[in-house]
Amino acid sequence: MIAGQGAAGYAAALYAARYGLTLIVCGDAFGGETATGGRIENYPGWPGIDGFDLMVKFKEQVATHNVAILESDLASVASGDDGFRSRLADGTRIRSTAVLLALGRDRRRLGLAHEREWIGRGVSYCSTCDAPLYRDKVVAVVGGGNAAVDGAILSAQHAAHVYLLYRGEELRRPDAVLLERLRQQANIRVLLKTEVVELIGREASGLEAIRISRPHGDTDRLPVDGLFIEIGADPRTEIPTALGVALNKATTEVHVDRMMCTNVEGVFAAGDLTDGSGPLKQTITAAAQGAIAAFSAYHYIMRRSPH
Predict the structure, then answer these.
(1) What is the pLDDT of residue 50?
(2) What is the CATH number of the domain that holds 206?
(3) Packing angle of the helix pair 51-63, 7-18 (nearest 10 deg)
(4) Which of 229, 260, 289 is the last residue of a domain?
(5) DSSP alpha helices (H): ranges in the chain?
(6) Is 114 within a domain?
(7) Residues of the chain with pLDDT under 70
(8) In whole angstroms, what is the distance from residue 31 CA to residue 15 CA?
(9) Which residues pair with 164 in a beta bridge?
(10) Which single residue of 41, 158, 164, 221 has CA 20 to 30 Å from 3?
(11) Is residue 270 a contact partner of residue 276, using CB atoms and an 8 Å limit?
(12) What one-character-per-residue DSSP string does 85-117 give?
């Protein structure tokens, strides 16, 4: 059983199906982070494609193998001598020899009106993914940690001007080397003790400006083409923790070895849920982890199968 309909889940399903395993894929969030990330230009084979469209192609390829895909989230998993018993949110119960968790992460949000509907239309949670889309434009990055500072530096390589907005009085958390690189970027303006309080734009076209909590110059309205919200993401660890799966103490992500095995026999994990690719959370790394996890699950099942 594979839990998750993002890049990791679909890649795992594709490989597991080709290994001849009987499997079920579940999850009600189609496409994961990729599907809501807007245009993607760094996935091999696609010079440019909308993330939702890419995930549609993933799913269509999986469907050619007659894989059962259930549009319901995983609610609980229990382990026993006969394998695993899973229950979905809609009440469906599944028995399986192994479980592959590709549950992803929940992005921390600002909680502003239009924030969700303008994802991919000016609002983004991944500067690594989307910074190149704003060449010669104006963008703002929100956050005060390594991800935000690194996102501002990356954005500055493409955008004409970058605002880095942080609600604190000074940047204390980022690594010293990042702060030094930040100071060297002439087109980045750091606005401290500043929060985004409103997203301004049009329903048809998306974001056009942001309103900030304290004036910059003589205005609290900053015209921007893009807003990167880099305030962190929380891996969905409730079910892994209930299963006894060990977490990375530093990142609270599911800890996996190089073959995407967890500490619990028969439980595998892949994608943004895990520490398998360090801080790099991309469609390509999630898909790669899904393939590896399926390989490991296949060999685990074969070892348990009667000969």
Answers:
(1) 84
(2) 3.50.50.60
(3) 20
(4) 229
(5) 7-18, 32-35, 51-63, 127-130, 146-156, 176-183, 238-242, 283-304
(6) no
(7) 306-307
(8) 17
(9) 141, 190
(10) 41
(11) yes
(12) EEEETTS-EEEES-EEE---EEE-----TTTTT
Burial of 110 (0-12, 13-18, 19+ CB in 10 A): middle
Residue type, 95: R
Q: Which residues of 216-236 are buried (b: 16+ CB within 10 A; e: fewer)?
A: eeeeeebebbbbbbbbebebb
Place of tokens 């702060």: 179
Range of the domain at 91: 2-107+233-304
* 113: in domain: no
Please state, in angstroms and rounded to a whole number, the distance separating the CA atoms of residues 12 and 4. 10
What is the tally of structural domains in the chain? Answer: 2
C-alpha 112/C-alpha 116 separation (Å) is 8
Which one-letter amino acid corresponds to residue 65? H
At 307 the pLDDT is 58
pLDDT score for 174: 87
Token duo for residue 122:
């000016």
pLDDT digits (tens, 9 = 90+) for 74-86: 999 999 888 999 9
Which pTM value belongs to this model?
A: 0.78
